[in-house]
Amino acid sequence: MSVLSIILQIILGLGFLMFGFMKFGSQQMVEGFKHYGYPAWFRVVTGIVEIIAALLVIAGIWNVTLAALGGLVIMATMIGAIFTHIKIKDTVKNMMMPIVLFIFGLVVLLINFGSLLG
Fold first, then answer.
1. I need a surface site. Which of 14, 28, 55, 115 has the fewest CB within 10 A?
2. How far is CA 117 from CA 2, 31, 55, 112, in A?
3. DSSP code of 74?
4. Contact indicator for 57, 13 with CB cutoff of 8 Å
5. Measured between alpha carbons, how far apart are the two ends of the chain, in Å?
């Protein structure tokens, strides 16, 4: 496993743990999901998915298959975030974090992709 992948996995893992747990009660997240037009249950589900993604990429430091799966879950989650920003006609500036996280997830997936194939 490359050092780049490990560094990205640590960054993604810690970030997604933090943002995932914030989905459960942060007033900013509650208001944000209301602004996006999503129900409260969707915020909770998103938090659970983000925590699972974080655990996958962290465990992926020792198991490349988990790293690749974590990268894939992160990419899917960030595609949803990007489309949400597009849906509400948000600025590109506000889309930059999901775009960067999507790219980080893609890099982790690509570095560890071989493990998914066999």
1. 28
2. 18, 41, 21, 10
3. H
4. yes
5. 16
Distance between CA 16 and CA 43 in Å, rounded? 14
Q: Each residue of 35-92: pLDDT tens digit?
A: 999 999 999 999 999 999 999 999 999 999 999 999 999 999 999 999 999 999 999 9
C-alpha to C-alpha distances, 36 to 2, 12, 16, 56, 97, nearest whole angstrom: 37, 24, 20, 27, 16
Q: Tell me how long the chain is.
A: 118
pTM equals: 0.91
Read off the tokens for 74.
């992160």
Cβ count within 10 A of residue 17: 17
Tell me which residue of 97, 93, 95 sits closest to 105, measured CA to CA: 97
In the chain, helix, strand, coil percent, each to 5?
Answer: 85, 0, 15
